[in-house]
Each structure stands twice: as structure tokens, then as C-alpha cells.
Design brief:
This protein has 169 residues and is of the alpha+beta class. The protein has one domain. The chain has three helices and ten strands, in the order βααβββββββββα. It has a six-stranded mixed sheet with strand order 5-9-10-8-7-6. α1 packs antiparallel against α2.
Length: 169
């Protein structure tokens, strides 16, 4: 499993739309605040109109999924400024499934601002962790006691990295 190959994380149309709409709403708050700013405005309102929306955008952008790389039995999920690393030494299987995230409920995490990431649950997978940008490109990584979903540009090629090679005698 020393692939070293980098797989990009393309955005689905739904992720683009959710991100665009959320950015518009969050950036409209400071604009609204500028047009309604007055001397007696409460500090909490100033915080809610100016600091909070910008902080949400910046922090969420830092967590976006940029790419995936398998190197030395470690999956590197590349974020904006760092990589989240997942040890693959106990990986049991990797399978593609464009319907893997269907019917999911987010239990903790980001549901569409720059990525889908965090803890989710559905009937098919039970509880799982996700690092995704296009759910239709899902690869299910199964470990003892946990499931992780990633969405690399070429799911079949990505999953093939984990298939055992047969040896002829």
C-alpha cells in the first residue's frame, strides 16, 4: 500500500450550491450591518453581524477536502493547510458505492460548507466518519469497529489500491 498517488477531491453540484448559498448569506450579514451601523449598537449584535459570519467562513474553508493520498499505509486527507491522517494498517475492505451516503443524518460535523465532513449515520453503514466533496464518488473504507467514507476523483482506481494481488505458483 505504498501508492503515493494523489487523487483530487472534485466538488459535486450540490456542494457547490450549498457553499455558494451559505457564502452569500454569511457575507450579506456584514453588508447588512454596514448599512445599519449606528453608535448605540450592542456589542453582541456587532459580533453576530461582523465577526461570526467571517469566522464561520474562514474556519470552514480551512477544513475543505482538497485531495487524498495513500502513502506508507496512511491515508492523507489533504485539507487547506494540513492533512488529516488515517492509519490503514487494519483496513478490512475498500468498496465503491455511489449510494453510500444516501439517507444520511449528520450527527456532528459539516453538512456542505466547502465539504461534507464529520460523523454521519445511515441505515446502510450505521455510524461512519466522512471526508467528502462528492457523495457519488464514495469509497467505503471498513476497519474493525469503524467505517470511513472518502470521495476521490477515481473511486474504482482508488479502491483498487487496497485489493490484494494474486500470486501465481
Amino acid at each position: 500500500m505504498n501508492s503515493g498517488k494523489v487523487f483530487s477531491a472534485p466538488w459535486s453540484n450540490s456542494l457547490k450550491l450549498i457553499t455558494l448559498l451559505t457564502v452569500v448569506v454569511l457575507l450579506s450579514m456584514p453588508v447588512f450591518g454596514l448599512f445599519n451601523l449606528h453608535a448605540g449598537m450592542q456589542p453582541g449584535i456587532i459580533f453576530a453581524l461582523f465577526v461570526l459570519p467571517v469566522a464561520i467562513l474562514v474556519i470552514s474553508a480551512l477544513f475543505m477536502i482538497r485531495s487524498y493520498e495513500v502513502r506508507n499505509s496512511i491515508l492523507h486527507v489533504q485539507r487547506l493547510l494540513w492533512a488529516t491522517k488515517l492509519d490503514l494498517s487494519e483496513l478490512e475492505s475498500a468498496e465503491t458505492d455511489p449510494e453510500a451516503m444516501k439517507g444520511s443524518i449528520r450527527t456532528f460535523g459539516n453538512g456542505g460548507l466547502f465539504c461534507f465532513a464529520g460523523k454521519f449515520r445511515n441505515r446502510k453503514l450505521g455510524p461512519y466518519r466522512v471526508f467528502a466533496s462528492d457523495p457519488k464518488l464514495a469509497v467505503i473504507l471498513r476497519f474493525p469497529g469503524k467505517v470511513v467514507v472518502v470521495t476521490p476523483e477515481s473511486p474504482t482506481e482508488f479502491a483498487r489500491i487496497f485489493k490484494p494481488t494474486r500470486r501465481h505458483r
